[in-house]
Amino acid sequence: MRLAAAALTTLALAVPVAADPVVVELYTSQGCSSCPPADEMLGKLTQRDNVIALSLHVDYWDWIGWKDTFAAPAFSERQLRYAEAVGSNTRYTPQFVIGGIDRVAGPSGMELSDLIQAHDGATGDVLQADGSDVRVAATGTKGQLIAVTYLPEATVGVLHGENAGQSITYHNVVRSWTVLQELDGSVTTVRVPAAPDGEKRVVLAQAIVDGKPATMLGAVKLD
């Protein structure tokens, strides 16, 4: 599937900065032929100050002939928990999850842009960073405080599988996903460990409902 230039332009437009950025997760795979346009879209989103865009590589495409160099079973499991939250067991690649609750299957630029706009400013000023310390405002909602480290950019030459022969650039590739603390809805402050060399950190606060990921309560970049 090809991504219209107009959709890419829309995603890159400057917009007012929200107190807490909108979290956009892309579930993707180096072995999926439909994923490169979505990977390109995520790259555009990383240019926006009001978005935290994260690329999570799943491992369930590895059997088709190419083992994704960034994939982790935990990311495949997280995507499954999102599906179960809406009564499904079906996962799509590529798939965007916006704000922890809205989903877009495939590289649909205009739908994605509209959902980001709808979520912009919805979280308020929940997380504040002071160096490596993150303060969580009172939300009255139980959830998790999550530290994420990611590679800002990486280019991979895919040798086998559906994308054989392609050199694909990935953006904000998640390398670790760590629950720092269970949240009870009250004010708290947490020290976040340093990221490995070459990686950066963001912190997310996300509601958890019946053991499944739900609404993003807040997000902040540390690096």
UniProtKB/TrEMBL annotation:
Q: Where is the signal peptide?
A: 1-19
Give one Pfam family.
DUF1223
Keywords of the record, alphabetical order, are:
Signal
Membrane-crossing ranges are none
SUPFAM superfamilies linked = Thioredoxin-like
Tell me the superkingdom of the source.
Answer: Bacteria
Cross-referenced PANTHER family: LIPOPROTEIN LIPID ATTACHMENT SITE-LIKE PROTEIN, PUTATIVE (DUF1223)-RELATED, PTHR36057
For this entry, the protein name equals: Putative secreted protein
Q: Which organism is it from?
A: Jannaschia donghaensis
